[in-house]
Amino acid sequence: MRFLGIDPATKTGVVALNGRGEVVLEVELKGAGKAEKGGITIAQLVDLENQLYQVIQPGDETVIEQAAAGTQKGITTGMIHGGLRSIIHRKGLVYHEINPLQTKKYVGVTGWKGEAGSKVRLKDKEKKAAVSKAVQEMFGYHHKSDNVVDAYIIARAAWNLFLLREFKPLVDTHPFQVEIIQGILDKAK
Q1: What is the pLDDT of residues 10-45, one digit of tens each?
Q2: Going from the N-terminus, what domains does the chain have, and what CATH number goes with each?
Q3: Would you give the distance in Å from CA 179 to the centre of its chain?
């Protein structure tokens, strides 16, 4: 059994962990071809879906990240997210969802910096750097792609979701991690 985390985007991060939490797959998938201005072509989308179809295996415990609220490219995001979910379904798998805020919270990143009363929201690159640093410190994992780093977090959530459902001890036990996993499990009921 593998624990699969998917961070959907035009560059989709995919990470699979084995039963010991070791990375057995880490890849960033991108549909082949030239992108259209402001979006993804159907040919690129189909190629991205075909690549995901090739890496998914029967029995994968799968968690996929939801689209970010207020995304600027709603149509492209919808096409990618819908297409990748359809591929998971065609493989005969059930998937669970985690939202982008939960992905960051899983490693203790709130999206803010500073002291109470003078907090400032982290911007895009700053937030990605904070997440990468937190993953490195918490799990000793590093990858050059932010999408793969997010997929790693999501794969760990998939692993712990399985453990919680099967009444085995969790490996990620910070209260915020347990809260996220329990929330995903409750939503699935």
Answers
A1: 899 999 999 999 999 999 999 998 877 767 888 999
A2: 3-188 (3.30.420.10)
A3: 17
Residue 173 burial by Cβ neighbours in a 10 Å radius (0-12, 13-18, 19+):
exposed
How far is residue 56's CA from residue 34's CA, in Å, rounded to a whole number?
25
pTM, full prediction: 0.92
Residue 115 to residue 43: CA distance in whole angstroms: 47
Q: How many CB atoms lie within 10 A of CB 121?
A: 11
Q: Are 58 and 16 in contact (CB under 8 A)?
A: no
User: Which H, E and C letters describe 123-164, residue by residue?
Assistant: CHHHHHHHHHHHHHHHHCCCCCCHHHHHHHHHHHHHHHHHHH
What are the structure tokens assigned to 5, written together?
């985390």
